Amino acid sequence: MAVVLLAEAVFIAALNWFLGVVVDRQDMSLAGLDPDVMATSSKVGGIVFGGYFALCALVAALVAIRDRAPAGFGRVLLISAAVVHGLLGAFAWGLVGWTAFLAMVVVLGLIVLLLMTYDRAAGPEGAGGGAPGRGDAPAKRKEPAAAPAGAGAPASRTDEPQDGDDGPQDSVPAQVTAPVTTTP
Question: What's the CA gap between 4 and 39, in Å, rounded?
Fold first, then answer.
């Protein structure tokens, strides 16, 4: 995924730079705009969008290296890249053709796959049962070894709840009231 986004970053930057050079050499005005401004803005836009996609590629590479779901700014960046590819795909269908649309949809699908691959609750450890309580089998409580009788050992633990076993409970019992009729 990171390689695809990095290749796209280089392609977008090179394409916009090439278009800036073409506009500069044509020395033609579009609706009264200065050709130098159009050439410069095309080159700057290519650098900005190329940097944006390169940053998305960096986030995708970090996700692969860390083997964790993207979080915070990286997640927002990848979601915005998915939206951009959806919009570019829609425009590409009408302006360029179905092949450009297909390329944009493939990249969009890869970004969505990257975002949806990791389960945020369990993480990659949950699949292999790495962390206690997160695998398929419930975690078992280890019982202390029994001490020899008469050595002053405490009584064995029963299955009744002890202090700290359950979550906090209300100290005042809830009062149950009978429903009141509202019509005579």
Answer: 27
